[in-house]
Specification:
about 600 residues, Rossmann fold, 6-stranded parallel β-sheet, 26 helices, globular, RecD_N_sf
Length: about 600
């Protein structure tokens, strides 16, 4: 029996048709790379990849259409669906179809006139929440107005643009108008959910105490917990037949949600529920297939465009004319199903003006090679330090900062100090990968007598949960430290979403890893005061993209050190992640 080491070849071999096999191979491979489908318009770039496995003269799409295993209609049960010159596995076509259908359903359920009148009745309250600043458009206000009017809203914004502050103000308006509103908050990871909870508690709003008390009752959860995770099953307790009983659902870090979870989330939301998705369209997409949040944000030619009636309403809430928005739209945008449903927050309150992290991260995401080169050539260190020599002294100087959390006896404070700095890696394997970097840091701290690695779960070891453990209430991405309890017994301590310490016997934790360093992917949804980002020295690493760099850079609130070869840094900014899907084209067909 012939065997294959390549899982994509194994998949293709299940199908007898020699004409279908290369397509099956490519669809499988594309899924593993994060694409939802195979774009048949781009086959010319794939021929070299499959020529060593399959005897082909050309890839005959007309012949593909005649294959018994391929359906041209989405409602049939063949393994493959061919739609608009895109080849899908049936399951992924169904995910995409459900997302499309549900978004259009939410959109069409909007009671715009009723919502407009309610906003007008509360004009003074809203103005008090959003004081105007001369010559600066308050996009948070715009997002809040649209979120109240629409049943489906996307809010995208870079670091420090105030996405969580916007959520707090949206909720304040909603509670002012309807005090009995049922609200659910969710995020893809436990860490992101905890950050959402903390940010909402810290929101300094000028509102009555009864509204503030509503915020205390909000308990953000992971999406899996919200939907009702069923062990060893791809399904959830909440679905179309058993929807979530909430009036408003707000989901943070939506760029991290893959197409499968996105579909199941929308399926569990009732038709009358208001859904608000927050995220950063420029960040890394999900680990699994799909980049739905980014796709939706790029569906139109431009964002932040509104019809005359919506523009007038928004401007009626802004006293300073210099801070009002203008109507500047073309007919193509007006006709798009997502018109007036996406708002981009443009003003960063964290990186003001010419602060370096903001400037450099924008240069990366926009592939501004001139600005990137200027940062590389810069001699003096500011917010951004680029080290192309991988200076070991600079590395040691940074990781010496971990002494702060080790010396802190208060466990809760120690957890906060652990988040004051973090080493971020692009890859897991290799000299600059997470595993080796963590070993280097452990060795350095051992030499300094700050830790003793005699035990697997040694005192002060920082750990990260790598798989959801619902029995213990710990989730993928949760970070804790090993400390002694009151009885001098070593325990793993974590802070839950309510800000309370929870402790667990380390022996109960099977899926954990040391987290002095973590991957940039794992850092999504987190913030650190200072960041050291280490890129691999090897050339032609596919994972190095502008989205990866941007995500790592924007985890830092104050300072970032980037250790990278100049060539790799410049190439990374040129490499843009583009995942194949049909969602935007299918919107235009509706």
């Amino acid at each position: 029996m012939q065997t294959f080491n390549d899982v994509h070849l194994q998949f293709a071999s299940f199908f007898k048709s020699q004409n279908l096999q290369p397509y099956a191979y490519l669809v499988s491979k594309k899924l593993s790379q994060g694409h939802i489908c195979l774009n048949l318009n781009e086959l010319s770039t794939e021929k070299e990849d499959i020529s060593s496995y399959f005897k082909i003269n050309n890839l005959n799409i007309e012949q593909l259409k005649k294959e018994k295993m391929v359906s041209l209609k989405g409602d049939e049960k063949q393994p493959f669906i061919l739609h608009q010159n895109r080849l899908y596995l049936q399951r992924y076509f169904n995910y995409e179809s459900k997302i499309l259908t549900r978004i259009l359903k939410f959109k069409n359920n909007t009671e715009e006139l009723n919502q407009l009148n309610r906003l007008k009745e509360n004009k003074d309250f809203i103005k008090n929440l959003f004081p105007s600043t001369p010559n600066i458009i308050n996009w948070q206000l715009v997002a809040a107005v649209n979120s109240f009017i629409n049943n489906f809203t996307i809010i995208t914004g870079g670091p420090g643009t105030g996405k969580t502050t916007t959520v707090a103000k949206i909720l304040a308006i909603m509670f002012q108008i309807n005090p009995d509103l049922k609200v659910a908050l969710a995020a893809p990871t436990g860490k992101a959910a905890a950050r959402m909870a903390e940010s909402l508690k810290q929101a300094d709003l000028k509102v009555d105490e009864d509204i503030k008390s509503k915020f205390e009752l909000l308990k953000p959860a992971t999406i899996h917990r919200l939907l009702g995770y069923v062990p060893d099953s791809p399904y959830f307790k909440h679905n179309r037949e058993n929807p979530l009983l909430v009036d408003v659902l707000i989901v943070d870090e939506s760029s991290m949600i893959d197409v499968a979870l996105f579909s199941k989330l929308l399926d569990a939301v009732g038709n009358q529920t208001k859904l608000i998705l927050l995220g950063d369209k420029d960040q890394l997409a999900s680990v699994e297939a799909g980049s739905l949040f980014g796709d939706l944000c790029l569906a139109q030619n431009q964002l932040n465009i509104f019809d005359e009636e919506r523009t007038q309403l928004i401007n009626s809430l802004i006293d300073d004319e210099s801070a009002q928005i203008s109507t500047n739209i073309d007919s193509q945008d007006i006709s798009h199903p997502l018109f007036q449903h996406i708002v981009e927050l443009k003003h960063s309150y964290r990186f003001k003006g010419e602060e370096e992290i903001g400037v450099f991260s924008k240069a990366i995401i926009n592939n501004n090679q001139k600005t990137i080169k200027e940062f590389i050539d810069k001699k003096e260190n500011g917010q951004v330090t680029i080290d192309t020599n991988y200076d070991i002294k600079l590395f040691h100087e940074f990781v010496k900062g971990y002494q702060d959390y080790i010396d802190e006896t208060d466990i809760k404070k120690a957890l906060k100090k652990l988040n004051n700095l973090k080493v971020l890696c692009a890859v897991r394997e290799g000299e600059q990968g997470v595993y080796m970097i963590n070993k280097h840091i452990e060795s350095y701290l051992s030499e300094k007598k700050l830790i003793n690695k005699g035990l697997e779960f040694y005192l002060h070891r920082p750990i990260m949960i790598t798989k959801n453990n619902y029995a213990l209430g710990l989730f993928n991405g949760d970070i804790g430290i090993i400390r002694e309890d009151d009885h001098k017994v070593l325990k793993a301590f974590f802070e839950n979403s309510e800000g309370k310490l929870v402790s667990v016997f380390p022996g109960l934790l099977s899926q954990v890893e040391t987290v002095f360093a973590m991957t940039i992917h794992k850092s999504q949804g987190s913030e650190f005061t200072n960041v050291l980002m280490v890129l691999p020295k090897a050339e032609n690493i596919d994972i190095l993209t502008r989205e990866l760099l941007y995500t790592g850079l924007t985890r830092a609130k104050q300072n970032v050190i980037l250790q990278a070869l100049e060539a790799n840094l410049l190439k990374s900014a040129e490499a843009k992640v583009e995942r194949a899907s049909g969602i935007n084209q299918r919107f235009l067909l509706e």
